[in-house]
Amino acid sequence: MGDIARELQHEEDTESMLDGIVHAALELVPHAAEASVSLITGSRTIESRAASSDLPRRVDALQSETGQGPCLDASYEKRVVSVPDLSTDERWPEFSRQAFQLGARSMLSFQLFVDGDHLGALNLFGNDAGVFDAESERIGALVAAHAAVAVAGSRQVSQLTQALDTRDLIGQAKGILMERFKITAQQAFLLLSRASSELNIKLHVVAEQLTVSGEMAEKG
């Protein structure tokens, strides 16, 4: 269990890491037959970013449509939401009825992270009602906690990678201008900055257009 976060952080990209969270949950949580990692935006729109089958994806879509369900409650209000029996649960009448018709019988939802208007949750599905016990909830919470660490680390790494890519792009653009106009690095940067300001577009976009097309961006 202690290696989960480290193993997940070694995944090459975010999607692989989310798939790893789903796999770990199915391997470790007693009675978990299906699993998904869902991302929720400020508009309460839910998107399955990793899922073990079509059922979790359809349940996520249903929660988006009805605006209710355990994934939303776990993400916005509680860290863990248990649904022992969807056929009798009365907390989300419309969701529970339709989720049961889709084939869902019982669920556990765990909050993964909250980052402004973006939230994440781990959802587990049981094949029958009442299959999830205290041990399922305890281990599920541990998996979610380790997964949250990995997600946070991945997002930080992604931000760093993006920053480095942007820096390299601007460096390439400066090099093109320095060679073309026989100017210094500082003068090249000023040219890029001026174009960014005059066109009201981000500096890295100006740099990208220059490196791709060989021409500076101009007003349309």
Quaternary structure classification: single chain
Span between termini = 56 Å
- Cα Rg: 23 Å
Q: What's the CATH class label of the largest domain?
A: Alpha Beta
Number of domains: 2
Q: Helix segment count? A: 8
CATH superfamily annotation of the largest domain: GAF domain
Q: What's the overall average pLDDT, rounded?
A: 86
Beta-strand residue percentage: 15-25%
Structural class: alpha+beta
Largest sheet: 5 strands, antiparallel
Q: Using the alpha-carbon principal axes, give the shape.
A: elongated
The CATH topology of the largest domain comes to Beta-Lactamase
Give the spatial strand order of the biggest sheet: 2-1-5-4-3
Report the count of strand segments: 5
Give the helix proportion (percent range).
55-70%
Name the poorly predicted regions: 4-11
